[in-house]
Amino acid sequence: MNGQEYPIDQAEMNKVVEAVRAIKDGPRVLQLYMDICAKCGTCAKQCHVSCSEPLRRNNPASRSDHIRGLYKMNHSVLQKLAALLCGSIGASLKKETLDEWFRDFYECSGCRRCAKFCPFGIDNSVITRKGRTILHSLGLTPAKIRATQKTSDQFGNNEGIPLQVFMDNMCFLEDELLEEHGVRIRIPVDERADVLFATASAEILAHAETLMGCATFFHVAGISWTMSSEAFDAANFGFFSGDDAHMKRKNKLLHDACMKLKVKKLVIGECGHAYRVAKHIGGTNYWGKEIPYEITSILILAAEVLRKGGLKLDPSRNPMPVTYHDPCNFARSAGIIEEPREILRACVEDFREMTPNRDLNWCCGGGGGLGPLDSCEGVREGESSFYEYRMQVTGKKKLEQIISTGARYVAAPCGNCKRQITQLVNYHKHDVEVGGLFDLFDKAIIL
Amino acid sequence: MSVDKLVGGLLPYLTCIVFILGIAYRVSRWNRASVTRMPLFPIPSGRAQKWSQIAKEVLIFKGPLDGDKSLWIGTWIFHATLALVLVGHLGIVTDFPRLWNALAHKKGEIDAVAAIASGCAGVILMATGLYLLFRRLAVLRVREISSFEDYASIALVLAVVLTGDIMRFGSQFDLNPVREYFKALFYLRSAPVPSDPWFLLHFFLAQLLIMYIPFSKFLHIPGIFYSKSLLWQK
Q1: How do residues A338-348 score in pLDDT, each as one tens digit?
Q2: B23-30, long-range: CB within 8 Å, 24+ apart, which pairs?
Q3: From the CA of A284, how many Å to the nearest CA of chain B?
Q4: How many CB pairs under 8 A join A and B?
């Protein structure tokens, strides 16, 4: 992609400058991040991308300087003078600059590990998303993400699954569950219940075993639940693209379904960003503090049920060494850290921790919308595709971690993490299975 | 107007106004802006834990301690020594005869301790300051994100330290006219400005630095409380 393929006129370039200049009036987070970064370099030391490939463009502070430099050039007299004297990063906005923005802002996986170590808590993922929001307004979003958003707006789910196919799919999974467990386990759709369950539609297609495991869980826990034919997809690509309007629109589907079916709880399945958008970004922020339903994760729910006791699980049915990957959106961004471990310890015989883990875990390399990206968009001569970038750069730390645990199964409760790690172990020829927690639950449960 | 009248008679008022108005302007901009919900977990629960987290960052620089020890060793010693030096400067602008009496120490002893402490502090500040400048030049991931502003900031700070060290280690320096001058300044009265050229240069550079704070990354001084607390809003 270069300036010629995507003609950007001067009016649009001015819009970019205006959008950055407007940071002066808020939000507070961006004002602060423009003002106080001391360029100490700690973020680069603790970023999985920067550690794997120590190029300048992978340095979180440098990436943020795309916006910070432009902001400073358009504000203080002192900084304009300084920039004139010695030239600061991102000083001027050329068409080629937007090419860099496109490539760089889609190479940050938004994992927020930098924020954990920055002395001021500067979260570069916020600046990354701001960059993506600006790019989106110019139509500069990776094709896969753009297309997925379009599909989602048309069909109500990211995969474009039509209603009848979804219903057939659920029937099929019920048959599978009957065959597996010898007991009729239902997957209710559009029924009045206590719980509305939603997960990533990609997961439903690619990892149906996880959904089956969730259904089994609701069954044995005696929880009244349902899915919604209009809102079974909790995934939200507006979160990745910086398109706030899409993010709200997609979240509304969940909200409307909860209100329509009068549920007490919205329970999100194994999808990290889906939970984060539902609980922390959307939800009460969009629809008011007094929404009549609680928003929670199936991981929290299952841990609660396990603690109460009464479920019979046989961990020996999962004898292989299992390790747990803390998805960034569950650990750092949602605080769901111990619950998955409680579930795993109950379901598997040989549980091993990665190092580091919990809120300091390394990103799998597929976060922030990177997981679904395979194309060669935004790359220059001699550089490789998003796929190669994920396999060789962003996934490097994760692969090292997995190998050193000696695990044969990586449990990751997030669809993009599953995709990334599966591709990673296959690409690097390691015999490791990747799956969800509820897959293991489904195997261990004694009905 | 002579240099000493400019640096000591006029500039301090400008410095105060620029600093106070500048900080007020920048902080009010933060206060007025919208707050985003962006919790980073685990969130410290309750006020005590939140203050403890802030204290850990401000007092022991936890982020760099965990994340980049080559940075921590330089920046922590620098800032800790700077804090002591700033406290020590209270003894330059005024005196505390009642405090020393209360502690039952003789004036001569206090002066001796102050002389040794200030000397050590001056050397440590210079050494760690140079280490941080050297690090910025030598470590690639730091050099590639450094701009003119970053080098100018450390150069200015080092210049203030250097001139301070020259005063401290140079020929005998009588603090009494300095104390008289600052006491008068505090009460907005005029007094003869000490004419020692190194004092004037040090004072001038220090004021430049103070005026620069509201327009620089030194805004992290109030800023850190805002930026950290943003991560804790649920």
Answers
A1: 999 999 999 99
A2: B23/B213, B23/B214, B23/B222, B25/B214, B26/A35, B26/B214, B26/B219, B27/B222, B29/A24, B29/A25, B29/A31, B30/A28, B30/A31, B30/A32, B30/B223, B30/B226
A3: 11
A4: 167
